[in-house]
Sequence to fold (384 residues):
Amino acid sequence: MPVCNVSLQVIPLVDQKEVYPLVDQVIDYIASTGVKYSVGPMETTMEGDLEELLSIVKKVQALCTTAGADRVLSVVKIDYSTRGVTIDEKMGKYKI
Amino acid sequence: MPVCNVSLQVIPLVDQKEVYPLVDQVIDYIASTGVKYSVGPMETTMEGDLEELLSIVKKVQALCTTAGADRVLSVVKIDYSTRGVTIDEKMGKYKI
Amino acid sequence: MPVCNVSLQVIPLVDQKEVYPLVDQVIDYIASTGVKYSVGPMETTMEGDLEELLSIVKKVQALCTTAGADRVLSVVKIDYSTRGVTIDEKMGKYKI
Amino acid sequence: MPVCNVSLQVIPLVDQKEVYPLVDQVIDYIASTGVKYSVGPMETTMEGDLEELLSIVKKVQALCTTAGADRVLSVVKIDYSTRGVTIDEKMGKYKI
Fold:
């Protein structure tokens, strides 16, 4: 299967002051999986096999509710092509 | 596992005139899975088990490329809660 | 200017029990503007002039903070074409 | 008015090979406006006054159709708070 890009924005319905710590937990978890990822101000973009990335998205839901969020709204974007899609082909020229 | 809501907007990079027929194929596929769903002008919302719904999202990617799209951009929204989330609790009052 | 479609999902960071009442206020406001709209389980889609619809999106932010949300996350989708885009061309076959 | 964050993903329905050049045009335009922005693999996030940022989102639609796209799908996320929202408060710890 080709690599693809999956971005994830997590919006847990918790007190304002708990939002960033919970998002940090999500990013720590993504980092722990070993997939390539890039953190942005509104979402984290991952690169890899679609099935693996969707499995991470699924586990993040349980991570958030276990951490105290009654409810979680997520926005997931998928960029998929049979030839593969990489973060570098999109970001190369915008990196310093 | 509680039921949740997952909405899917599929944007295949194909000729304008092929967009709606391809989106129709996606909706036909969702209907064929037997999950509860609601078609809207920008996305289709499904209700069920998160793992099953994400599996449908995954299969839709291959469906689109098999149908001729070189590339597919998707927007997926997840509404997840330990107590469950239903389409009816959100839409009840807005139906005739 | 051609008509276009703009969908809006509003996620106010408030207590769970206050989310639906606040979303209802947003939909009431959209209804009060007179634009054509369609309520879905995850977003409300509006049809009209892009500038007018983005002005509604802007006013909804202040509506939410005035109603008590410290913070609001919104997801807005725009479907824009020089030939115009209508809700009916997309939904016609899926209505009963 | 407080500063807020608005992210923009533009998906023009053009030939695959024309997508990146058109997205580059959009980013060039955003850069030319003078607002603070951060380019990511799936979206560009801007920081500033909500009205100004939505005006940029609006102009991007015309830019894409003028550049040859018959149709443009966009995903816009807004992060709004009366106390203001900045890219730095979210990205600080993730920068090298």
